[in-house]
């Protein structure tokens, strides 16, 4: 096959609608724009959300709450779920991802105290609750803040 023999797959290319090219074309005279009005004129169309001068929906509806742009997105993990790991293992964010406990760490991982820990683990994450830290150390492990 040569370069000049290449052609697009049948049906993949559609002919361009040639508007304003006379009555016989089927798209002549008003060129598919109807008669008069703002949308029939040349030049820039209306901006997104414009409702003809009426107050737009995004400005009519009440605004509530506050969106803190500085907020940290921290994923929480319960102490009970750490029993998945082998005794004496080092549990860090990468290990939590590999085990499928955490999908995305975002700004960090915090261990919370829900559940009981039966294994001796070294846990290295962003933050711990006081109760979670106590449970990890009571099981003979270490809680290290990274």
Mean pLDDT: 94
Structure class: alpha/beta
The spatial strand order of the largest sheet comes to 1-3-5
Instruction: Give the SSE order as H and E letters.
Output: HEEHEEEHE
Give the termini separation: 60 Å
Which term fits the overall shape?
Answer: elongated
Q: How many strands?
A: 6
- Name the helicity range: 10-25%
Quaternary organisation:
single chain
Tell me what you see in this structure.
- With 146 residues, the chain is α/β, with parallel strands linked by helices.
- Helix content is 13%, strand content 14%.
- It has three helices and six strands; from the N terminus they run αββαβββαβ.
- It has helices at residues 57-60, 93-98, 130-138; strands at residues 75-78, 90-91, 109-112, 122-125, 127-128, 142-145.
- The strands form two sheets. Strands 1-3-5 form a three-stranded parallel β-sheet.
- The longest helix is centred in the C-terminal third of the chain and has 9 residues, at 130-138.
Q: Quick summary of this structure?
A:
With 146 residues, the protein is α/β, with parallel strands linked by helices. Helix content is 13%, strand content 14%.
Descriptive keywords:
146 residues; three-stranded parallel beta sheet
